[in-house]
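Give me the 3D structure for MerR family transcriptional regulator.
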Amino acid sequence: MPKLSIGQMAKMNQISVQTLRLYDKMGLLQPAYINQETGYRYYDMKQNATLDMIQYMKGAGMTLKEISHVFEQKDYSLLNRMLQNHLHQIDQEVEALHLKQKAIQRMICSYDRYLKSPPDGVMTLEYIEERKIYSHMTTINFYEEGIEAYENILLQLKQEMKKHGVSEYYYYNAGTTIFIDNFLAKRTVSQEIFVFVDKDCQSQYLQILPANLYVCMYCDDFDKEKDYIPQIHQYLQDHNLKMIGDYICEVVTELPMNKGQKREMFLRLQVPVEFVKK
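Predicted structure for MerR family transcriptional regulator (278 residues):
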C-alpha cells in the first residue's frame, strides 16, 4: 500500500498539517511509518477510517481529550454516555437560542405596536383577545411611593419568575393591576405586577385574562398614569359602560434611555367593560 506524506494525508482529508501533528502528539492518530533517517512521517489509506471517526466525534461536540480517552479505554458505553451528555447540552443550547429568538420577536412586535399606536392621551374602545399572565402580589403601592418603589417591585417580580421557572425573556413587558373594587372606589392602589407569557408557556402560577372589550387609554409617561385614571372613570360614565374586571396597565414598550435616567415607557391603560343595556 503506497505511503502518504503528512502533507498528502492532510490534503486528502481537507485538514491542516498542524492538525495531524496535534493528533500524533495526543496519540490519537500516529503515522504508520517514520523514516528514521529523515524523520519524515508517512500514513497509509487505512488510517482514514480513524481520522474519519475523530472528525465525526468532534462534529458531535466531543473534545480531543474525550476522544483520546474513549480510544484508550475502548469503552463504548462510555462513548454512549458522553454522546448523551453532549446531546443534552445541545438541547439546552437550542432552547436558549429559541428563547433569544422569541425575545427578539417580542421586542420587534412591541416597537411595531408602539409606532402604530395612538398618541398620548387618546382613548379607544378595543376588543382584546385572551391573554396569559404570570403575576406577583405586592404590598408596595408605587402610585404613592413613586418610580423607585416600582423598580423594587420589578426586582421582586424577576426573583419570583426565576424561582418558579418562568423565563426572563417575558420580563420585558411588565404590567400592573388595580383590582376592580379599588378602581370603582377610586383608590389607586397597586396590588399586583405581572408579565404576559406565550400561550404555550406552562406553569401552575399562570392566570388567564379573558378576551373582552376594553376601554384603553395611551400614556407616554409613568407619572401621567395616575392623572389619566379619572378620565377613564369619566369615559365609562359618559358612554354607559360597566367595568367587569380589574384595571391593568400594560407596558407596550420601553424606550432606550440615557444612563441613569428613569425608565421611558409607553403604556396602554385598560379596563374591561360591557355596555349597560337600557
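DSSP finds nine helices and twelve strands in the chain. Let me know if you want a second pass.
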